[in-house]
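Ops channel
N.P.: pipeline sanity check, posting one input/output pair.
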C-alpha cells in the first residue's frame, strides 16, 4: 500500500525537501575515535560532537527545521503571560487534536512527572504496550509498577507483523480482573513504541483498548511523542486507514484518548512538550503543577521561539510528504543491511534502524552488554554514534539485581530530514564491515554505575583489549586515513 511516488528504482527513497542550511561535519581519524570513546567510558552519551561524524544517537530535538518554522520563530511574542505565540500553539493543537485544553511543559518527561504525581498512588498498576525509560522511572518513583502487555509478536525481532506495538487485549482484561480497576489509574499506549524498535499500534487495536477501558471506567493516556511515524504506518499498512487523511487519522486517535502528552523534541520537530486534555476537572488539577515545575501557563518552560516552531512543525506533521521521510529512509537502511546478513528489527519501524546486538554479537553474554559493546565498536570504525537500547538501559531493582533486557538493540536514529542518502549508505557500509569482523568485538563492564538512569552517565571499561585489535584490523583494510 506504500505510496510509490516517493521512491525510484526498487527501494530508493526520495528526499521531498532541499537543504538550505548546513552544518559542517568532522570525520576524525580512527585513533582519535578510539581515544574519544575511551574517555567517554564506552558510553556514547558522553561523546563530544566534535568527535562524531554521523550522529544517530537520537531523533530527539535534532530534527531538521523547515524554512517556515525558522520564519515563525522571528515573530515570537515574548510576553511572560498571555503571549500570542502560546495562543497560536493552543489553537493549532485544538484544530489538530480537537480537545479543549493544552498545558505546556519543557519536554516529554515533564509531562510524565506531572501526570504520574497526579494520577498514581503507591501500589497502583499501569498496563502499557511497552515502557519508555523516563516513563517507567516516574511511575516507579510515585509508587506504581508497570505491566507491559504488547502482543507476543512484539518481542520477535524478525517478524512481518505490521503492528508490533499493539496491546494484547486478553492480557489487558486479565490485569484488570486480577488487580481491579481501582488500582489502575490509566492504561498507557505509546505511539511508535520506542524500545521495541519504533513499532506502531493499529487504529483497530486502539479501538479495542478503548472498549475495554470504557467497560471498566479506566482512562487512556497516549504518549504521542512518536505519533508521526505511527500515523505513517497506519496510513500505509492498515486497510481501514488508507483512504483517511493524516488529519482524520490524528483526530480518530485523539477521540480514543483521554489524555495525550508528547515530546515536541520529536513530534513537531522543535523542542518542548505538553499535555492535551478534554476533562476540565483533571485539567484544573494538572494546571496547578505547571507553574510549580515548568513555568507560567503560557510558556511552560519553553522559549517562545520554540513554541512558534512547534506550531508550524505540528501543522507540517499533518503532511504525508513530510512524515514519510524518516520511515522510508529507515526501511532502506533495514533492507540494505539485511542484504548484508546483518540482523535487524523487522519490519522496519519509525525513529531509526535497530540492530539486533544479541545476534550480531552472540558470543558476548548479556551481562557484558552486547548492545553497548556494539555501539562502542561502531563508533570506533565509523564515527557513527548510535544508542544502546538493552540491558544497560535497564535499572537494578530494589535488591540490586540487574534485569536482563528482552532485547539487546543498537538504535541508529534517523532524525527527520537530516541525513542524505549517501551518509546513510556510508553507515550501512561500515556496519557491514563490522559484521564481517564481529568476532573481534568483546564485552564491557561497569566502572562507574549511577543508581538512576545509569545509561545516561555511567562509565564502562572493556573486558579485554579487543578495541585495539579492532583498530588494527580496520587499518589493514582501510589504511590510516579514516
Ligand atoms: N516518550 C517517548 C516515547 C520518548 O521516546 C521520549 C524520549 C519521551 C517520552 C521523553 O521525552 O525526551 O522530551 O523528555 N525519547 C528520547 C529518545 C529521549 O532518544 O528516544 P523527552
Amino acid at each position: 500500500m506504500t505510496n510509490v511516488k516517493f521512491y525510484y528504482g526498487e527501494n530508493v527513497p526520495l528526499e521531498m525537501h532541499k537543504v538550505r542550511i548546513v552544518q559542517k561535519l568532522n570525520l576524525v581519524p580512527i585513533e582519535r575515535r578510539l581515544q574519544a570513546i575511551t574517555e567517554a567510558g564506552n558510553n556514547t552519551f558522553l561523546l563530544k560532537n566534535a568527535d562524531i561524524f554521523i550522529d544517530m544517537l537520537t531523533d530527539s530535538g535534532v530534527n531538521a527545521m523547515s524554512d517556515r518554522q525558522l520564519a515563525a520563530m522571528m515573530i515570537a511574542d515574548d510576553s511572560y503571560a498571555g503571549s500570542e505565540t502560546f495562543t497560536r500553539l493552543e489553537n493549532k493543537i485544538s484544530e489538530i487534536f480537537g480537545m479543549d485544553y493544552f498545558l505546556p511543559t519543557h519536554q516529554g518527561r515533564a509531562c510524565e512527572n506531572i501526570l504520574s504525581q497526579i494520577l498514581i498512588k503507591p501500589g497502583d498498576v499501569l498496563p502499557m504496550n511497552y515502557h519508555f525509560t523516563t516513563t517507567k522511572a516516574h511511575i516507579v518513583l510515585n509508587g506504581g509498577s508497570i505491566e507491559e502487555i504488547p502482543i507476543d509478536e512484539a518481542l520477535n525481532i524478525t517478524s512481518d507483523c505490521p503492528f508490533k506495538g499493539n496491546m494484547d487485549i486478553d492480557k489487558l482484561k486479565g490485569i484488570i480482573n486480577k488487580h481491579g480497576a481501582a488500582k489502575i489509574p490509566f492504561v498507557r499506549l505509546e505511539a511508535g513504541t520506542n524500545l521495541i524498535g519504533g513499532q506502531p499500534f493499529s487504529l483497530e487495536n486502539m479501538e479495542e483498548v478503548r472498549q475495554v477501558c470504557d467497560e471498566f471506567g479506566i482512562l487512556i493516556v497516549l504518549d504521542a511523542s512518536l505519533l508521526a511515524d505511527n500515523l505513517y504506518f497506519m496510513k500505509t499498512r492498515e486497510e481501514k486507514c488508507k483512504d483517511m487523511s493524516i488529519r482524520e487519522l490524528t483526530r480518530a486517535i485523539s477521540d480514543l484518548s483521554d489524555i495525550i502528552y508528547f515530546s515536541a523534541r520529536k513530534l513537531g520537530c522543535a523542542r518542548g512538550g505538553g499535555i492535551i486534555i478534554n476533562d476540565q476537572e483533571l485539567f484544573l488539577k494538572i494546571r496547578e503543577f505547571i507553574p510549580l515545575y515548568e513555568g507560567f501557563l503560557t510558556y511552560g518552560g519553553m522559549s517562545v521561539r520554540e513554541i512558534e516552531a512547534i506550531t508550524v512543525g505540528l501543522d507540517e506533521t499533518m503532511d504525508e510528504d513530510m512524515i514519510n521521510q524518516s520511515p522510508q529512509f529507515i526501511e532502506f537502511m533495514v533492507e540494505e543491511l539485511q542484504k548484508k546478513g546483518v540482523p535487524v528489527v523487522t519490519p522496519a519501524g519509525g525513529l531509526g534502524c535497530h540492530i539486533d546486538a544479541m545476534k550480531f554479537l552472540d558470543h558476548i553474554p548479556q551481562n557484558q552488554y552486547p548492545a553497548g559493546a556494539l555501539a562502542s565498536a561502531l563508533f570506533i570504525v565509523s564515527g557513527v554514534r548510535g544508542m544502546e537500547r538493552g540491558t544497560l538501559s535497564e535499572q537494578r531493582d530494589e535488591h540490586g539485581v540487574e534485569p536482563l533486557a528482552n532485547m539487546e538493540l543498537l538504535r541508529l536514529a534517523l532524525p527527520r530530514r537530516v541525513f542524505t542518502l549517501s551518509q546513510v549508505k556510508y553507515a550501512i557500509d561500515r556496519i557491514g564491515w563490522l559484521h564481517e569482523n564481529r568476532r573481534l568485538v568483546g564485552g564491557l563492564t561497569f566502572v562507574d554505575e549511577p543508581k538512576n538512569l545509569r545509561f545516561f552517565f555511567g562509565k564502562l571499561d572493556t573486558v579485554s583489549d579487543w578495541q585495539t585489535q579492532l583498530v588494527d584490523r580496520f587499518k589493514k583494510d582501510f589504511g590510516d586515513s579514516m
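N.P.: looks fine end to end. The radius of gyration is 22 Å.
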